[in-house]
Design goal:
alpha+beta, globular, four-stranded antiparallel β-sheet, Immunoglobulin-like, 10 strands, six-stranded mixed β-sheet, 169 residues
Length: 169
Amino acid sequence: MPKPVMMQQQRCTAPLRIGVLLLALAGCAAPETRTASPAPVPALQPKMARVWVLRQPNAPGGNVAAADPMVYANGAALGQSPQGTVFFHDFQPGTYRFTMQPYGTPANLVDTLQLAPGMQAYLQIQAVPNWDMGSTAGGASFAVPTMSPQEAQADLPTMTNLSKRGAGA
C-alpha cells in the first residue's frame, strides 16, 4: 500500500517541479530592453544660439569619475554635468566664457565662444590629470573645450539627455 501513495505524491509534485523549472529557465532569458525615447528637443528660437554640453560616460579613473561639476557661462551656473549626459542652453547672440567648477587643482582651461543667431556649438567636459597642468598633486580637474559638430552628433545618441538647463530653463 505504501507504493500507490508514493506514486500519488510524485504525480502531484511533477507539475510543480515542471513549473519551477520553467520559471528558472525564464529567468535565464535575456531581459526585455526598453529604451525611453528622449524628450523632443524644441526648435531653436529665431535670433538665439544653442550650446550643447556633453560629458562622456568613460571618464578616467580617480575621484573625478564621481564628480558632477558645475558648468558656468560668464560666471552664471548652467547646470551640473554628470558622466554620460548632455544638456543644452539657448543664449542671446554674444560672447560667452565657459568655465568649470574646480576640482583638485583648478585647471583654468576655459573656452570662449562668439555666438551668432541660429548657431549651435558643442562643448565637451573633459577630466584633465593634474600632472598635465604641472602639478605634483594627484587627481584631476575639468576643462571645457569646443568639439566638432560631427563628433558631437555621433556621441549624442549614446548619452542621457538632461534637456534644457540654466537660468530660465
